[in-house]
Amino acid sequence: MSDKNRVFIFDTTMRDGEQSPGASMSLEEKIQISRIFDELGIDVIEAGFPIASPGDFEAVTAISKILKNSIPCGLSRANKKDIDACYEALKAAPRFRIHTFISTSPLHMKHKLNKSPEQVVDAIKDSVSYARNLTDDVEWSCEDGTRTDMDFMCKIVEIAINSGAKTINIPDTVGYTIPSEFTKIITTLKNKVPNIDKAILSVHCHNDLGLAVANSLAGVSAGARQVECTINGIGERAGNAALEEIVMAIRTRNDLMPYSTGIKTDLLSKASKIVSNATFPVQFNKAIVGKNAFAHEAGIHQDGMLKNRETYEIMTPESVGVKKTSLIMGKHSGRHAFKEKLNDLGYVDVTDDVIQTAFGKFKVLADKKKHVYDDDIAALVDDSMILDKSVINLKSLKVFAGTGEPQRAEMKLDVYGEVKETSETGDGPVDAIFKCIKSLYPHDVNLQLYQVHAVTEGTDAQATVSVRIEEKGKTTVGQASDTDTLVASANAYLSALNKMIIKRNKTTAPIELETQKMKGI
Ligand code: KIV
Ligand code: ZN
Fold first, then answer.
1. 416 by DSSP, 3-state: which?
2. Are residues 199 and 347 in the same domain?
3. Is the CB of 177 under 6 A from ligand 1?
4. Do 355 and 426 reside in the same domain of the chain?
5. 140 lines ligand 1 (CB under 6 A)
6. Which of 128, 393, 410, 464 has CB 3.0 to 4.6 Å from 423, enough for a Cys bridge?
């Protein structure tokens, strides 16, 4: 495979991905994500939007210092203040990229920027050349590219390259294009922009019509050599193109797409899990990383699989790092074996406190449940990691449910070190539980989502509950697992609440407000 067929993977999980409601990540989570991304073989990691908030600035700075292979990148609008913030956050890295963007469609120039095309051209020249004085590696994006006039786009791409951009990114910001149209856009740029060979063309597709991956691959087939994407496809609105889908499509259909990436595909599953733990659960039928992606239910399929796996399997689960779920230790297994198991499951940076808590929970679970599977163990560790940072914790819960009576919950909570108790009735047991929490720790949030699913099969399976809450435009997601769905519900709500408390305590800088306004938050 020649170098001209190498496709660079630019990940924006921690920037565009974080813009999805409920996906905000803590600094520790971002560091953990960066480590696995570095190992995964991602070429460029867009670690944040440094001017947006002190939290973003801090994350980009920290990530820039730890990456061993991937190039860190920060986003900036087309002004010196944004670009300077990027430079300050990135400068500790031996190599880094500044990504600057401006809107170029008639709609955005008029209504969002209130600028004429000539003013936009000037801003492109100024911002790209300013960034280029700070680093050799400048990427320029024309926001709302797919709704930009084609002749204007050819002109501004040429200008951006002349001003020093080495990567030209064409975003389908609103997920509006279709593969044939996007092919035409990339082909036209290749054919009409005289200096196009001096830059790498990149594509950045949103998924509003469910076409982000198809459009990105069309862009690559037409000559783009960088794809911007996110793990699990998280991102604004319907999300961005999913990294794992792009990479596995290229690998699986290499006969039709003879390109290569630097991604170690057997780490995709692990990366997906780490990102979903920090953000929200992946849908069961999600391509490549969904729980059902390699499950064969129909008898006729199972029969075919037993005869020859290729009958119904176009890629192996092992190729994306899915190991056969194994029955694990029983209640007599020791702490050492438990720790080894965590290592096997990819939990490498886990503190002793978390291991201790998870091990205690494992013993209780092994007493209750006949078979404890890998997924059960993973759910226990995920819960214990959240507990480690919580200021409000469940001490005990009793629920009286069933027909006739109003459902009632009795709860003891540890609130900042003080144990408090109450009893509430509600419209169903979950309502009674959430009312107890509100009474013991008064707060005012909107419950946006309450979802239950089983971790493994059987009536003794653990349930994982996901809860999303919203307070003054900020959202957080909590997850928890337990064989008792009501206990999992209480813990999931508390997990979301604890994250909200952490979020509240972070100061909101004026620029963050400005950015939120910009993003329409
Ligand atoms: O979707 C978009 O246009 C973006 C740009 C900032 C690249 O995310
Ligand atoms: Zn985007």
1. coil
2. no
3. no
4. no
5. no
6. 410
384 Cα to the center of ligand 2, angstroms: 33
**Cα(417) to centroid(ligand 2), Å:** 42
Q: Point out the ligand nearest to the CA of residue 230.
A: 2
Considering the domain architecture, whether residues 267 and 301 belong to the same structural domain is answered as no
CATH of the domain at 402: 3.30.160.270
Cβ of residue 101 lying under 6 Å from some atom of ligand 1: yes
- The answer to whether residue 284 sits within a structural domain is no
Distance (angstroms) between ligand 2 centre and the Cα of 478 equals: 25
Q: Which domain holds residue 405?
A: 390-518
User: From CA 358, how far away is CA 385, in angstroms rounded?
Assistant: 9
Structurally, how many domains does the chain consist of?
3
* Range with the poorest average pLDDT among 137-141, 183-187, 298-302, 415-419: 298-302
CB 3 within 8 A of CB 262: no
- 4 vs 277, higher pLDDT: 4
Q: For residue 90, how many C-alpha atoms fall within 13 Å in the half-sphere facing its CB?
A: 32
Cα 387–393–396 angle (5° rounding)? 120
Residue nearest to atom 1 of ligand 1 (CA): 173
Q: Is the CB of 172 under 6 A from ligand 1?
A: no
Say if residue 502's pLDDT is above 90: no
49 lines ligand 1 (CB under 6 A): no
By the 8 A CB rule, do 152 and 125 touch? no
| CB 341 within 8 Å of CB 329 | yes
Residue 478 CB less than 6 A away from ligand 1: no
How far apart CA 110 and CA 441 sit, in angstroms, is 47
What's residue 479's pLDDT?
82
- Pair 273, 318 in one domain: no
Can you tell me the distance from the alpha carbon of 212 to that of 214, in angstroms, rounded to the nearest whole number?
Answer: 6
For ligand 1, pick from 19, 113, 139, 143 the residue to mutate: most ligand atoms within 8 Å of CB.
Answer: 143
Residues 193 and 301 in one domain: no
Question: Closest Cα to residue 355, out of 377, 329, 370?
Answer: 377
pTM for the predicted model, two decimal places: 0.77
Other beta carbons within 10 Å of 310? 10
**Residues 317 and 463 occupy one common structural domain:** no
